[in-house]
């Protein structure tokens, strides 16, 4: 599965104003659930993982990759993205605050690996990060991501 296939257009939103990490996790879950990619309880599972394991999901400066286990309510492999107008503290000692929050739902341990490898490659490119952070509207953000991931 490629990144392009994993992305859920309805679960991509730009420049959201959310108060804290709980609100970010909840909103990411709501978007994926509304798209039919996860069950509504998956957001609670993502929050539980954060509460139990801490902010390990903050994988790089300003970037969180939210997720839970497949059995927590994944209906199809999926990836959403929320960019934040005002960065939010997740509690990570070096990578806070977060302004890019990806939400991943994986059906199993293998099918999404290629897409995540592509995402990791893109996230290592300053141009990609700037494009995500500079997109002022959801439509601009979606167009940027899809044109980048199809190239």
From TrEMBL:
Protein name, UniProt field: Ascorbate-specific PTS system EIIA component
UniProt keywords, alphabetically: Cytoplasm, Kinase, Phosphoprotein, Phosphotransferase system, Transferase, Transport
Residue ranges constituting the PTS EIIA type-2 domain according to the UniProt record: 5-148
Source organism per UniProt: Pelolinea submarina
Role of this protein: The phosphoenolpyruvate-dependent sugar phosphotransferase system (sugar PTS), a major carbohydrate active transport system, catalyzes the phosphorylation of incoming sugar substrates concomitantly with their translocation across the cell membrane. The enzyme II UlaABC PTS system is involved in ascorbate transport.
Record-linked InterPro entries: Ascorbate-PTS_EIIA_comp, PTrfase/Anion_transptr, PTS_EIIA_type-2_dom
Gene3D superfamilies referenced in this protein's UniProt entry, alphabetically: Mannitol-specific EII, Chain A
Superkingdom, natural source: Bacteria
Gene Ontology molecular function: kinase activity
Keyword Lyase assigned: no
CDD domains documented for this protein: PTS_IIA_fru
Record-level GO BP terms: phosphoenolpyruvate-dependent sugar phosphotransferase system
GO cellular component: cytoplasm
Subcellular location: Cytoplasm
